[in-house]
Amino acid sequence: MQTTEAIWSSALSAISSALKPGQLDTWFKDVSLIRATPEEATIRVPNAFYRKWFEMHYEGLIAEALGRDLGARPRINFELAEAELRPRLPEQAPSPAAPAPPRKPVVSDLKLRNNYVFSSFVTGPSNQLAHAATLAIVESPGHSYNPLFLHGGVGLGKTHLMQAAAHALLKQKPDLHIKYLSCESFMNQFIYALQKGGIEQFRARYRQVDALMIDDIHILAKRARTQEEFFHTFNELYNAHKQIILSSDSAPQDIPEFEERLISRFKWGLVARIDPPCLETRMAIIRQKAEMRGRTLPDDVVGFIAETVPDNVRELEGAVLKTIGYASLMNRPVDLGLAREILRSDKPAASGGPVTCERIQDVVGRWYGVTPAELQAKTRARSIAFPRQVGMYLARRLTNRSLEEVGTAFGGRDHSTVAHACDRIEQEIAANPEFTSTVKSLVEQIKAG
Ligand code: ADP
Ligand code: MG
Description:
Number of helices: 20
CATH architecture of the largest domain: 3-Layer(aba) Sandwich
Shape: globular
Strand order of the largest sheet: 5-6-7-4-8
Number of domains: 3
Order of helices and strands: HHEEHHEHEHEHHEHEHEHHHHHHHHHH
Bound molecules: adenosine-5'-diphosphate, magnesium ion
Structural class: alpha/beta
CATH topology of the largest domain: Rossmann fold
Number of strands: 8
Helix content: 40-55%
Distance between the termini: 66 Å
Strand content: 5-15%
Largest sheet: 5 strands, parallel
Radius of gyration: 27 Å
């Protein structure tokens, strides 16, 4: 009989072929098969949010995939992981001497970007979980998933999603008291209050909010005092069922020098990671960003931008703006030639001007004692083949040229040859410090012109 793990791993490979790239990683990473018989299978999911999502989207797929190994499609039960059984904090009995003061009208200091709304957020496998989680919070703030902890690299949409939640909550209830601020402001206000003796007002200000959103919470790393203060604010709001949304550049447990008790609280709610968008999503984002400015970009331009600016939505957006802006400035249509001109010249223009394949061949050739013509020739002699690989690697690193284009510049080689050269040189760099310093020095010479 097969073990549960074996059944699950074979089911996962069937499931993965039915999903978009990235989706398996987003949704199934923290999900496991606990028991399986042909009648019934139990799947463990991290929390109630996942259960709902899985019941809606993946139940049939899982049953089908398990059915292949078990001989019949089992009924699927979803079980929550233990982390979901979160502790209640000790409730603080309201002191009878201090009845809750009537709510003062709040002077809103809420600064939200108008365009950071759900309708302008493009979803794909990389951000689907975070997007769905944020929407779920808007449906029942404070009750379903608290806190919501969004994490991911720079420019992937954390701030956008948080502000979208704020916009949507305010639309439902315009008098809701939402506090959205950067962690830096939170810290500065706290320090200021400490210095000026205004700590009570500081606390009061935070404890009367209906929803607290703090952006980039990871900057509290190493700030023990502010962490401590935040901890108390967190507890009070949490106990009062006030929604908390946090964003960070890394997962709770990966923020360096962060208090354990805060990390564990972050995990009580829903932790959602945003990954860099895949090609398809990048293309959708590019189209949407252009459409927001009343433009439709040709497909090849969309593809080119998506390939050239790989993993940061802010930069994708910047590239779209630059392309459109330049076209109107020069009174030219937006076409592939124009996009290439603009995005090419983006690479760090070192003192010596933009890096070209010609210059790379010159510098590398001089170093290894071969001519640019030899680097482009068909010969496979090792004394030339190796410098050629170094050249191709540097061309990929220092210019915006695609694999194909680098291949062409090095004597019409195909893209797989260039890819292979890059792998080879990367391995050599990892293994050989002496070679690494050679490459560094080549880079300096090339950049110096
Ligand atoms: P982060 O806070 O993660 O660094 P931001 O939320 O500031 O990133 O996003 C950077 C830029 O990219 C913003 O202009 C935002 O509108 C845009 N952006 C990010 N993700 C998306 C998306 N999925 N759809 C549309 N725009 C996005
Ligand atoms: Mg941000």
